[in-house]
């Protein structure tokens, strides 16, 4: 039997809100760590080493900074998506698929709390 509710009740929304706040706190902490390692310009003293080694060292450092920038961007998007989910909770539209208009199963929202699409809608995108 399919769940025909139009939206989650206030108790469910509060449960999701708590989970999302916890995820935001962890994500912001992770983002701070990424940014800290990105900004950290400690020189490990390669100035007196051979030019070949220094070139490898600088290349690795550049790659690491690029990877950190990508990770930071993804983390910022994740935080933004979670904050948008909080807005949907306040509007009482949280958990409603934006394509089908059906309620997204609670199990999916517990796994992906910022989801805006049901599995059905995700599969239609393929």
UniProtKB/TrEMBL annotation:
It comes from the Bacteria. GO terms for molecular function: zinc ion binding. InterPro entries: Znf_DskA_TraR. Keywords: Metal-binding, Zinc, Zinc-finger. A zinc finger (dksA C4-type) spans 97-121. Coiled coil: none annotated. Residues 93-122 form the Zinc finger DksA/TraR C4-type domain. This is TraR/DksA family transcriptional regulator.
């Amino acid at each position: 039997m399919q769940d025909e509710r139009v939206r989650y009740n206030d108790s469910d929304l509060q449960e999701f809100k708590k989970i999302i706040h916890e995820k935001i706190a962890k994500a912001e902490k992770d983002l701070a760590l990424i940014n800290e390692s990105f900004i950290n310009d400690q020189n490990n003293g390669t100035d007196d080493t051979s030019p070949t080694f220094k070139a490898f060292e600088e290349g690795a450092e550049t790659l690491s900074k690029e990877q950190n920038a990508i990770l930071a961007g993804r983390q910022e998007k994740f935080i933004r998506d979670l904050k948008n989910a909080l807005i949907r909770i306040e509007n009482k539209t949280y958990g409603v698929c934006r394509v089908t208009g059906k309620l997204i199963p609670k199990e999916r929202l517990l796994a992906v709390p910022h989801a805006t699409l049901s599995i059905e809608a995700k599969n239609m995108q393929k």
